[in-house]
Amino acid sequence: VMPSNEERGYVVRNLIRRSLQQARNLGVNKHFLYRLIPVVTSVMQKAYPELERKREDIAAIVKSEEEKFLETLNQTLPKFVEIVKTMVQQQKKEIPPDIVFMFRDTYGLPWDIIEETTVSSDMKIDWPRVMELLEHQRVRSRDKSNITDSIFTKQHAFKGEGLFDREHYDLETVVIDLLEKKPGGKEIELVLEKTPFYPEEGGQIGDCGVVANKNAKIFIYDTKKIGDAIVHYGKIENGKINIADKVCAAIDKKRRLDIARNHTATHLLQAALRGVLGGHVQQQGSLVADDRLRFDFTHFKALTKQELDRVEEIVNAYIKNNDQITTEEMSLDNARKMGALAFFGEKYKDRVRVVSVSDYSKELCGGTHLDRTGEIGSFKIVSESSVASGIRRIEAVTGDFAFSKLKEEGRALTNICEMLGATQGCVEKKIEDLLSKLKTLEKKLSMIKSKLLASSIDEIIKEKEMIKGKNLIVKFL
Predict the structure, then answer these.
(1) CA distances from residue 169 to 253, 357, 366 in whole angstroms, order as listed
(2) Residue 100 and residue 45: Cα distance in Å, rounded?
(3) 310-325 average pLDDT score
(4) In sequence order, what are the residues at sequence separation of 6 or more whose Cβ sits closer than 8 angstroms to the Cβ of residue 415?
(5) N or C: which end of the chain has fewer CB within 10 A?
(6) Any bridge partners for residue 171, and if so which?
(7) pLDDT, tens digit, for every residue of 120-149?
(8) pLDDT per residue over 341-369, tens digit each?
(9) Widest Cα–Cα separation across the chain
(10) pLDDT in tens, 37-69
């Protein structure tokens, strides 16, 4: 369980924070809980033997939580205490609800610390009004979220059970349901008896392609699952299509392969991250598109350059090995027994699909994948960032997109070398020298400005103005 702001993770975070608050009352104003992890591991190892293996990871996560919370207390609590003192001096009896809400929502000051601070100063808080403000904030957050067409599409009960054929890129099928967005319009939504189009699911975007027969041609620009039906979102290029029409459904094969490269690479990335950072790494979300991949995972701090380089090296080593990718359907219980990773919070059916790569990756996954890792070509990390407390995000590219990224960076480096008049081997040293010279010049400039100001002081004083027996000098410098 990772500390977080939701569900059981919220309980863990509060336990850590409560412990630190109690410690502050005893005069301990620094992080210390992480130092107790070896003791806890020793006491609990008979019941939980895996704690010994994960001991350092747990200690690092707890230490990170402690540091963040103490930073919040050290920076934010004094501000709140000062406001409370000011209000006491003004002989006020209640802290305004908007101030309480701001310190909780914006600055992250815990409710109990807010309450303790006000109670100890004989101040009151209008809690119902504070909770009202909190609810308004939640409503505003919901209103700002994107509302997609698929939400409204659900109003139409599509027929069909979503028979997806992952073995073919094109096939003969039958239209079993359709919906025109506007009568006589070009926008149309189709359900086919069976389809090679993968619907958006599990972070993987939906397929594009063409549905056509001798009477009509429809460009399919997205595919989603609505209820049990696989719905194809299309634009009629010519002709007209009807329910019961026989059609040929063909996906964009190149795009599908680009998506598969990124999906398989996502599995390799998770395996590499767990190897470099530890077994606490778990998927928290992902995007698998044709031009990039995005992977959100549990970790307590930013990755160092060395860690990112190592992760990238490991993924590319997996690719170079050209390992076989296998898929197998089995019961959910058997999949868990064999150690297959699942996306926390995802609902799985009794029968699941396990995607395995050699002995280093086993995941529950319904998406489309390659046959061998070598088909990915290459893998390059583009960025690493924070999504939320305890959750990091890596964005990366594969195949042709990775090659294009390397070419783009190569061109940028060549241009920099030309501007600096340096070779690639010497460009870093050249930049360091220039930055050093720039700092020296800035210091000299500052000194010159100070000397000029000092030399003009007498002239400035001459511009003084007598107001009520006092000399006033006003000057813009």
Answers:
(1) 7, 23, 17
(2) 43
(3) 97
(4) none
(5) C
(6) 249
(7) 888 888 888 888 888 887 777 666 554 444
(8) 887 556 678 889 999 999 999 999 999 99
(9) 100
(10) 999 999 998 888 888 878 888 888 899 888 888
The answer to whether the CB of 153 falls within 8 A of the CB of 172 is no
Q: What pLDDT, on the 0 to 100 scale, is given for residue 142?
A: 62
According to DSSP, residue 375 is labeled: G
Contact (CB, 8 A) for 358 and 381: no
Ranges assigned E (strand) in 310-431: 325-331, 351-357, 361-364, 379-388, 391-398
Residues 6+ apart with CB under 8 A from 98: 133
Say whether pLDDT at 6 is over 80.
no
How far, in Å, are 87, 102, 114, 126 from residue 121 at the CA level?
Answer: 10, 19, 11, 15
Q: What is the DSSP string of 181-197?
A: SSTT-SEEEEEESSBSP
Selection from 378, 368, 371 nearest residue 400 by Cα: 378
The two tokens of residue 115 are 């309450």
Nearest of 86, 130, 96, 88 to residue 111 by alpha carbon? 130
| Rounded-to-10 torsion of CA 459, 460, 466, 470 | -120
Q: Is the pLDDT of residue 189 over 80?
A: yes
**CA–CA distance, 396 with 407 (Å, rounded to integer):** 15
pTM for this entry: 0.71
Between CA 48 and CA 42 the distance in angstroms is 10
Q: Residue 295: what residue type?
A: F
